[in-house]
Amino acid sequence: MGKKKATENQQQFPEFLQDVPAIEKVEAEIVDMEKLSNRLETATSYIQKEVSNVAKSFCRIGYKLWEVKEDKLYLGQGYKNVSEYGQKVLGFQKSSTANYIAICERFSVYKNDNCGGKYRLGR
After folding, report:
1. In terms of Cα–Cα distance, which of 99, 105, 98 is closest to 123?
2. Tens digits of per-residue pLDDT, 20-53?
3. Among candidates 111, 107, 87, which has minimal Cα distance to 97?
4. 122: region left, alpha or beta (phi > 0 left; psi from -120 to 50 alpha)
5. What is the pLDDT of residue 99?
6. In terms of pTM, does the model score above 0.70?
7. Where do the domains of the chain lie?
8. Residue 72: left if φ>0, alpha if ψ -120 to 50, beta else—which one?
9. Position 89 pLDDT exceeds 90
């Protein structure tokens, strides 16, 4: 019955208006757009959080590699330098090891106190 009524109503419109979407369709499209927008905001928030976590991980990895380099920990297992250690143990390219260390040196804060002058994460 509802379908028949809709068809009758469409026939009452002038011909040039018959192609204009019904208000219900427009409202449904608006609701769909709002749902998409909400889902995008949720996805964006998730991505931003994960990017932040990645950045923290890069700093932490860089710090540990910096520590291996500064304290010559690689010598304990016969590696000649931190790059060789990074390649053989971690599967890093030489440039990746250097980049991690550079990230640590750039974004960590130097703490010159009784802790032996070590880097710590954060600014």
Report:
1. 105
2. 667 777 777 888 889 999 999 999 999 999 998 8
3. 87
4. left
5. 94
6. no
7. 23-120
8. left
9. yes
Answer whether 114's CB lies under 8 Å from 100's CB.
no
Q: How far apart are CA 30 and CA 36, in angstroms?
A: 10
| Partners of 109 in beta bridges | 120
Give the mean pLDDT of the chain: 79
- The 3-class secondary structure across 5-61, one letter per residue, is HHHHHHHHCCHHHCCCCCHHHHHHHHHHHHHHHHHHHHHHHHHHHHHHHHHHHHHHH
Residue 1 pLDDT level (bands cut at 50, 70, 90): very low
Does residue 88 have a pLDDT over 90? yes
Place of tokens 């520590």: 67
